[in-house]
Specification:
By secondary structure, the protein is mainly alpha-helical. It is 88% helix and 0% strand. The chain folds into 2 domains: 32 residues; 96 residues, Orthogonal Bundle (Helix Hairpins), CATH 1.10.287.3610. The chain has 4 helices and no strands.
Length: 130
């Protein structure tokens, strides 16, 4: 797409802004409606507070931010998959169950990885504090 003319530039930025608004609306909707996302957000806030208390290094912050961002993103994807499956069928179907279970499994794997990252980052700091 050429951004040379003023009309195209306006359309480009208007379209870009709308995409951010839609993304924001999706995040807010998921926070309002998804218990697990709320739990992940509370844990994320706790981890961030702990990060400031224990003065994480830049590399430790990177690991924590990647863990938190990945966890929240994966939870949003899981929610999207669940909604799509529910939209397609109200009936029990083995493939629908497999899709939902696989998405939930991906969240579980990342949650365990995030917890391990948290242990690697925070346990030595807690032990030094004690």
């Amino acid at each position: 797409m050429s951004l040379g003319s003023n009309g195209n530039l306006k359309f480009f930025f208007s379209s870009l802004l709308r995409s951010f608004v839609f993304a924001y609306e999706g995040i807010v909707s998921a926070i309002k409606n998804e218990r697990n996302l709320k739990i992940h957000l509370v844990i994320a806030v706790g981890v961030i507070i702990a990060g400031f208390i224990f003065s994480l290094s830049a590399l430790e912050w990177v690991a924590v931010i990647v863990a938190i961002g990945g966890m929240l993103s994966l939870e949003l994807l899981n929610t999207a998959i669940e909604r799509i499956v529910d939209l397609v069928t109200d009936d029990f179907h083995p493939l629908a169950k497999q899709a939902k279970d696989a998405a939930a499994g991906a969240v579980l794997i990342y949650a365990v990885m995030s917890a391990i990252i948290g242990l690697i980052v925070f346990v030595p700091k807690i032990l030094n504090f004690l």
